[in-house]
Amino acid sequence: MEDGDRSSAASRRPRWSIVAAVAAVLAAHFALANGAAWNKCGTFDESSHIANGYSCWVSGDYRMYPVAILQHRWITLPLLFRGYHEPPLDAELWTRSDNWEYGRQLLYRLGNDSQEILHLARMMTSLWSVVLGGLVFVWARQLFGTASGFVALLLYAFNPNVLAHASSATIDLPAALAFTAALWTLWRTLERLTPGRLAASCVVWGLALTSKFSALLLVPMALLLLAVRWLDGRPWPYAYFGRSGEIDRRMRMLPRFAFLTAAHACAVWLTIWAMFGFRFEMYVDRVVPIDAARYPQITFDGAAAECLKPRADRPNDPQHARRFIVGTLRFFRDYRLFPEAYLYCFLNTLQTVSGFSAYLDGRHCNTGFASFFPLCTLYKTPGATFVLALLALAHHVVRRRRQMAAGESPLRLLAAGMYAVAPLWVLILVYSWSAITGNINIGIRHILPVFPAAFILIGVAGRWLTDAWEVGRKPTRRGRDHGPTHDVGRSTFSGAIARWTVVGCLAWQVVAVVNAYPNYLAYFNLIAGGPKNGYKHLVDSSLDWGQELPALKKWLDTNVSGQSPKPRVYFSYFGSTPPDVFGIDAVLLPGFWDRQQLDPKIQAPFEPELSPGLYCISATMLQSVYNQAAGGPWLTTHEQAYQQVLRNIVALYSAPPADRQRLIDQHGMQTWLGQFYVFEHLRLARLCNYLRRREPIAHINYGILIFNVSQADLDSALRGPPASTSEPPKTPGGETRY
To answer: What is the pTM for the complete model shown?
Structure first.
């Protein structure tokens, strides 16, 4: 599978020209990513990730959930030199370990330049992406040659999903780098054992296992690679301490495998401790103590108890596995084998992987869709990538048929080819299996680690550009190819078509990405109907991550501010950035966060009646994914609850003042506040059920949809028969799926 024909014209090009070309592509990637995010506000998760890292640096306290401490420290490193105001160490948010509130204060409430903070943090992620792009080129070039390296690099650098997360202060792109780099360095060590390769692999593995807890999947991947290496049985060259040679027997490999395992385990263990300052305690004395009585879940024991609670909405949750994991973590904590904060974060992650509410093609579920990630890939991958994948497969088939016609053994060719790319297939298959069988279906970002490996494999399509005249190659013992066994002396017509198709696809990919600028997160291909129809297929971090407040403000200034009379504007927002930061003058409808959480200064009295006007609805809220009272489709149970609470509200507001006060005294103000809260959410869900059957008058970068709603529309949506009702689907066991 590797390109050993180093005598080709492409291989004789000066090394500096290759380096310059790679640097140019990566520079364009860096510029496109950061330019696209320049006028975007913070995405839903960014404020919490920045809070996690910055609070660790300035306080030494780890209670703010540093789940990916390497990335959290990395993205906030440049912030330490800017002198930003920070929440005081005696603030009430510390008592409840509220990283969301810490992030909101740091970015929006203390006079700091929030956009500058975001730009600096995002730039640090982009640097990781540049490193990953370089690694994609190097690995593909080692396997298939320089042309294939450039094909893989271009697919990576100009992929909209990669660009969307390469400029995000989150942890998904660094996780992709961690998986790719860890398997590449380990495989190089298994190809030739030297102190340099071993040290590099240990360092990378240590950093990888502190990048994200999903990196624990590297452990079974490594075991599979050891098994592949052992079963293949080819000699294992080594060079250390002045000795060199080959290990040519399988049984002699086993002690070296054990040594490699121990070395990597020690490196990971030391790196974890180093990231937490070689300190066991999660809290420090100079920060206000936590309020464990009110918030027991922010202690290790409280988080462990939460993990072991059975959840009615997760009937198939494997409780026996949870008990084993929690017991193991308790053992680690009791004997101080790992930092307390690391174990606490593991417990919180264990709760998270139970799943979120998910949306796919009009369906809702909180236990995951097996088809979610395959369809995400189908909808959000540029068409050029699919064509190049077919060309790569065609090259493989044609090449192997020619080699078999030249007398090569099919089984030997298959073994040699699969061995060379074993780490890539192990990464793709293991990670994809974990994602597809898991319960977290909120964005394509959760399979981002698969992308680099896929691009490297697709890079073989670049061989059409360099060996159209080749008929067959004879593989050596190490899987490398020598020059062609014979030459037909001319290019075939099909080879010429393939070459120009590769060139055309690369141009198509670049043009598609440039046309999608700057809305890479909202990219959808023609299969999905383009970005305007994206909200009908996917929401959340696949489309709408709360990043479009500046664009909404610009649209309102252009289309609303000059009108007389000025229409009333309502806004249901899925995001963590306070809308008033950008001067958005709108009545806030229920969103993911309570209005007072977004901004405590908001005075939001309950409105018993909605008025005609412009309704700006985030795509995620339009699909009612996270509605607190009526998540998912509008069900008959939602309709019954809505009619009951509507009668209560009407009875209260239509009663004379004396009777109204009597009703309040009879049931208590807190009861009525609860009724108002439920009613607002049910009313929004019923309204969205109506609006989903209409086309919006505007798409704000495809993430926020604007509807012009008249009084007749409100009467139909809120008082007439519901637009549709559904019954909750059942699992095979009979349980409701949401």
So the answer is: 0.92
